[in-house]
Amino acid sequence: MLKPSQSSLKLPATHFLGLELGVDQLRAAVVDDHLDLVVSETVDFDADFPEYQTKGGLFTGQDETYTTPVDMWVKGLDLLLDRLRSKTDLSKIRAIGGSAQNASVWWTSESLSQLENLNPARTLHDQLGTLRTFSVLNTPAVGPASAQDTSSHAHVLENALGGPEEMASRVGVSAHQSLFAVQIMQCRERNGVAHRIRTGRISTAASFLCSLFIRKWAPINASQACVSGMWNHAASTWDDAALGVVAGEYDDVKSLREHLGAVTTDVEAGVISPYFVERYRFDKGTTIMTFTSDSISTYLSFCPQPTDAVLSFGTTDLLMTPTSSYIPSRAYTLITHPAQHPSEKQRRYVSIVTSRNADAPRGLVRDMYTKSWSAFDRLVAVVPPGGSIGLDNKLFSFWFLQSESPRLSHVRGLFRFETGVKVNEFRDLRANPRCLVESQLVAFRVAFARMVAVGLFAPTFSSPPVSSSSSRITRDLGFDPYDSRHLPRRVIATGFAAEFPSIMNTLCEVFNATVYVPHTQITSGGGIGLADGENAPNSPKPTGVSRAAIGGAYTAWWWTRTKTGGASDGVGTLEDEVRGVLGRKTIGKGSAVGVGLGVGIGTPNPSGVIQRPRGSSLAVHIFNEADEDSLHVDDHLRRYVGSPGGGSNFSTPSLLGPGISPSTAFTTPDANLGPSSSPSSSSSPAVLPLYNAEGEYEIDGGLVKIAEPDEDAFAQYAATVPEWVRLENMIARGIV
After folding, report:
1. Phi, psi of 528 (to 5 degrees)
2. Compositional bias (Polar residues) at which positions (predicted)?
3. Which of 32, 251, 443, 485 has the fewest CB atoms within 10 Å of its CB?
4. Which residues on neighbouring strands pair with residue 232, listed in sequence order?
């Protein structure tokens, strides 16, 4: 493995550009040699291009399928570069990195010649925004998770490859809606044979964006191929069996393989097209990186250490952890690390555990029980762990508004349990926010422990083998829930839910890990610290800098550094080099309130609006309770899950709604919700740094510590893990 640089490399004063093509916006971030942000810019598809009439960057079909106009993306790049040119000198940019959402792009055979012969006097959209360039103008896209379910195409692919486990073993992933393979199947079925004849190349959205810059079709990056549902990692080739299923009656395996093209592990895709040199004054030697997915680029922006985990809260919650082992399973996804130097002998990967029941349940619980995020945050904080003071009567809830794949793919509904018995509603309604958050976090904690048990993170994390001498609980679970040595030492949190002090404290206690957030989340209440993902239609737009764009800029900076210094000069991994430049420093003077607390309620937001980061469907309401209307809960739930089935009765009253009196059988002490004892405050939750006795806090690699673990609190949650697992197993087996 490469070693970190021992001396500072003296590079010219240059800049590095990172791009992210999201569902709803196209974003850019420029950093300098010291990784300081120079400028950022955003193009909002709905606001900037109203002529397309998209919502959240998407068209929604009657069958709740989503498509997006590819030529709108091209038009967005024109506008983004025009705006950047007016703010900064683009000739200083030395390299460009990028990422994009999960989507497919269908190039015509003629498009290759068009890319090679672009006229700098005309916009990209004028030259590429037609059916001459794209055989499919409106391509399948991944919309809000709350409105989607695993498609029939995904089931067809999974069954043809032998089921979830066999599919994961063969192509590294289990079936789900957003697979590149599934999108191709959907597009072929919708468009028939005619478009296939005109198609010359099928790209991911990331390789499409890269292609615009290098005047040719860019190859798909290995980090995207390995989660496409068609890539055989062991053989390092497209899988014939998977290709046969995807091709179906509209194509043949050979033709589909040619349309997909070669897969690359190279970090560098090429040099910039003369078009951008002449039109925007980029330097002709500007290097273009191989673009990757936005979630992985977000991960790279945090430069996690081997003992770290990154938890990104959003439409889909993602737990991402570095590993050097490739052990495929349906329970998680393994992605090839996209920024590895050719001289590295040990290949690296990123493990990803996903939860589709993320923002949607949190937003629904907010609507049903509190009507405000400040009240939601306070209820999570004041209700005891497990929703009850007692040790033997803990409460559990499982919210499956959309199916989780693959083990729980058949489950839809809401399940609550008191003393091990399924109930329609908790006697103490105030327990609902806390029990939801706990269940979401315990699910990740259990998933991580199971990955450790199969040796995925060895030797960094390992647990003693389960034997006859192990405790009964350890034998039943496959791991010891009371042993925190196999859990991450640090969890880096990002996304809107990471703004909640109560959620961050719960995360700290469940994992027994120190919790960090980006420093800019502390200083600006969001911004560069926000997560990346997709916006739901009609949801507020973010005002901060995209972490995925920052990750692309960091990758561009690192690769230029390796080329300048070379491996022989000791240039290390991207993570080592970025952490080395960002360094560690102690700054800031905290208030007495913050000292020693780690997290706490911040000051009110003057605008009265929570700024929701991209990818979160949480803050879809104005944060002013005086204007909030009561919701019909049945209708609100059905908007997410359709007709209830298998779960509880969905007619759950609002905790403090008009005419509703709380249950008299409370199992928690009186919840003091603030000075007014009412959850009607319009202040927005905000985390604070963990200050030392001098009122200072430390920034480590751009991250700020906000919570430290407590062994007693961890033990409380460890005691609930066996029951949580038992209840989830019962739900999966359909016996509750």
Report:
1. -65, -15
2. 661-670
3. 485
4. 237
Number of H helices, E strands in the chain: 24, 28
Sequence-separated (6 or more) residues with CB below 8 Å from residue 215:
115, 116, 118, 273, 274, 275
Sign of CA dihedral 565, 567, 569, 571: positive
Angle at CA of residue 636, ends 649 and 616, nearest 5°: 120
| Prior bond of 459 cis (ω within 30°) | yes
pLDDT tier, 504 (very low <50, low <70, confident <90, very high otherwise): very high
Residue predicted with more confidence, 466 or 233: 233
Residue 68: its H or E element: strand 66-69
Kindly indicate the confidence band of residue 679, based on its pLDDT and cuts at 50, 70 and 90. Answer: very low
Closest CA to 322 of 485, 457, 168: 457
Cis peptide before 406 (omega within 30 of 0): yes
Quote the pLDDT of residue 403. 80
Dihedral in degrees, nearest 10, Cα atoms 112, 117, 120, 126? -50
**Residue pair 333/351 in contact by the 8 Å Cβ criterion:** yes
- 191 against 689, higher pLDDT: 689
Across residues 134-156, what is the average pLDDT? 76
Q: Report d(CA 257, CA 251) in Å as an integer.
A: 10
**What pLDDT was estimated at residue 623?**
31
Q: Please provide the average confidence, as pLDDT, over all residues in the chain.
A: 83
Using only C-alpha atoms, the chain has a radius of gyration, in whole angstroms, of 25
CA dihedral of residues 483, 489, 493, 497 (deg, nearest 10): 30
Bridge partner residues of 400 (DSSP): 413
Do residues 278 and 284 touch, judged by C-beta distance below 8 A?
no
What pTM was estimated for this model as a whole? 0.86
Which CATH code fits 20-26+38-90+104-290? Answer: 3.30.420.40
Where exactly are the structural domains of the chain?
Answer: 20-26+38-90+104-290, 359-654+681-733
Q: Return the residue matching tokens 């066999």.
A: 166
pLDDT of residue 602: 34
* 543-552: pLDDT as tens digits: 578 999 999 9
d(CA 358, CA 360): 6
